[in-house]
Amino acid sequence: MFPGVDANRNIRNIALTGFMGCGKTSVGRVVAKVAGFEFLDTDQFIEEHVGKSIPRIFEEHGEETFRRYEREVVVRLAERENAVIATGGGLLVDAENMDTMKQYAMVFCLWASPESIWRRVKDKSHRPLLQTENPKQRIIDLLEERKPAYGRSDMLINTEYRSARDVANLILGQFRQTTRKAK
Ligand code: S3P
């Protein structure tokens, strides 16, 4: 057994977590393409099922309801195989979601400094949590608050000086090594 991997886990998918703007979707798409896996995005999954955009869900139903939808998605995706699951940046902050996801996926956390995140998200307006007076400070605070949760991922990857392709290769290398040794 690969060191650190719980024998009770049945890893057959790849999950990506990490803060908004760290490249989960772009990296996830590359990983899925190279591995021949299906690509899933939890935000998109929720939007399709609820029939509303994430900003509208936040606006009309509030963050609590959105988090409930996220918990439902984690349970619903448990039957998947060979999927790359890009999660919304807050989904695996919930300890129970992380535990459940780890049962069926190897979890990779993409990391970047608050400064790079700010550069990547500042011109985009579709993230309700950053619609505040001081979004830069909000990024610093949220990132600090979420550090312990993100730290529970199987692997943390700094994306600052790596292309999406390089990050994807790291993920696939680790996933293949782990799933091979876990058999
Ligand atoms: C959120 C991140 C967003 C989206 C929602 C909440 C968060 O997804 O799920 O706006 O709590 O960090 P991305 O990380 O894909 O931007």
Structure in a nutshell:
The chain has 183 residues and is an alpha/beta fold.
Architecture overview:
By secondary structure, the chain is of the alpha/beta class. It has one domain: Rossmann fold (3-Layer(aba) Sandwich), CATH 3.40.50.300. Helix content is 52%, strand content 14%. It has helices spanning 24-35, 42-50, 54-61, 63-76, 95-104, 114-121, 135-150, 164-182, and strands spanning 13-18, 38-41, 83-86, 105-111, 155-158. Strands 2-3-1-4-5 form a five-stranded parallel β-sheet. Helix 1 (24-35) packs across helix 8. It is globular. Shikimate-3-phosphate is lined by residues 20, 24, 43, 54, 88-90, 127-129.
Q: Which strand-content bin applies to the residues?
A: 5-15%
Helix content percent band: 40-55%
Measured distance between first and last alpha carbons: 8 Å
How many domains is the backbone divided into?
1
- Please give the number of β-strands: 5
Helix count from the secondary structure assignment = 8
Q: Main beta sheet, described?
A: 5 strands, parallel
Low-pLDDT windows of residues: none
Q: Output the CATH class name.
A: Alpha Beta
